[in-house]
Design a protein that fits this description.
Blueprint (H helix, E strand, L loop, with lengths): L1 H20 L16 E6 L3 H15 L2 E6 L2 H10 L8 E3 L3 H9 L3 E2 L23 E12 H7 L19 E4 L5 H14 L1 H12 L2 E5 L4 H7 L5 E5 H9 L4 E4 L7 E9 L7 H11 L2 H9 L4 E2 L23 H6 L1 H11 L9
Parallel strand pairs: 1-2, 1-3, 6-7, 6-8
Antiparallel strand pairs: 3-10, 4-10, 5-8, 5-9, 5-10, 5-11
Length: about 350
Amino acid sequence: MKKAITILLVMIITLSMVFAGGSGEKGSSDGTVEQKKHVSIYTANVEEEAIAYFDQFTKDTGIEVDYVRLSAGECITRMEAEKANPQVSVLLGGSVDTIVSAYEKGLIEKYTSPNMEYIVDEYKDNMDGIYTPYSLVVTCFASNTKLLDQLGIPAPTSWEELLRPELKGNVCMAHPATSGAAYTAFSSILQCFSEEEGFDYLKKLNDSIIQYTKAGAAPIRMAGLEETTVAVCYDLDAHTIINEGYDLVITYPSEGTGYEISCVSLVKGGPAEEQEAAKAFIDWMLSEKAQEMCTQQFYRYPLNKNVAVNPEMKPFDDIKLLNYDFIWSGQNKVRLLERFENEVRSSANVLN
């Protein structure tokens, strides 16, 4: 009997050790965490685009991806809430100003990809690895031609033309507190007119806005569905909707427009067992294959020197761009958004 009990106890202890060894993080003898072929990501990209990247990355590397799609503002809000215990390793999306602001909040880890050598020098990070740029997108107007005809006006080609009486209640944009695309448009206006004149302009424009949305891509879909005449949006979203068969025209503000250097970033304190996979994903986004997907499938301006721009897109050099100050925009984001919330429109009633 004693022998049987002893054997039973040994079996229980052995099974307990097996199950204990199968849970939690595994460490090696030198104290490092065993790396998984898996990475978790928050993305502000349109879901169809994000999934295409993730699927191709998995095919190329064998690394599986779990993701949550949110607007850029929501991504940062969630990362702030999880700061003590980050749930993801990578943030895909967000402009330089968004990432700089997030870095100052302690949410982003510096990382310099070895593939940065292939990126156009003008758009490289000059802040020692805070952000990894992978594409450019430009703020534009996308107008529904049928609704323009009904109003008897041409598509707007300047910020001032958005204030035309005919467009009162006929313009839609996302709220800059919830959308990275909208924050770029908002900051573009301030940098185009100066901060004080810009806020005066935004108060007037507010009378023309039929609805502020949460996500930056939502206004262009509303324009396609004839729910608004003009959408203030990114040109990649406009191209996407046009290719779906909607009759829209893209124009750019003649005073100058801002643009986003879209980033892919390492989340500070993300799951330790995903760090190698996270860096592999960031490196992959700078590869020729990923960059060709960016421009050929999703109408982004690629940053890899070896990849040509989609011929359907307007040449980047033909668009009048502002000397957009990403650093100022990022460092002043909290203050500027507080002004917008208090002086123009609260984000409390944005449309999903």
